[in-house]
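User: quick one, fold this
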Amino acid sequence: MDAMSTENPPLRCFGSGDATYALYHDTEWGVPVHGEPELLERLVLEGFQSGLSWLTVLRRREAFREAFAGFDPRTVAAFTDDDVAHLLANPRLIRNERKIRAAVANAQALRALHEGGGTLEAMIWSHVPIRHRRPHAWSEVPPTTDEAKELTRSLKAAGFTWVGPVTIYATMQACGVVNDHLVGCPAGDAIDEAG
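Assistant:
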């Protein structure tokens, strides 16, 4: 049975009731992500999610990928004020100027990080918690952690913006740095098994 089947769907800790959300839950959230464009995408989209539902962002994801050149750091870092104006006029995006400018600034910070010999991948994956247990209930999932706070400080020191500890913990969850699928969720079990 595929992840999108409505006949005897697998138990999910979230995402049931919407095919896009269910697919994201079943195949992406908590799965380890590597690669600079892929990590920049997660970081930027989690920033856009701030104050909104994740489903709002998820439904616009392909439009974001198009508008932000597949989140290629060099391309986005070179965006001009005219590019920002074009993005603000795009009805398929979340048209928040501060968030759009933060996305460009973060690509510029990433470019500077690369020029200094660093990577976003190394920065994010150096903050894996030593101990992390999957929660039994959503009430056990913290809004942030010490590792997320430390990563936030590192990102800010490197010039990244719109990177508060709550947003960064959500990024860590989305990138699989932590597996916060509830205990008993098949997607979380599969991630643990792939180890």
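User: anything notable?
Assistant: The two ends are 23 Å apart (CA to CA).
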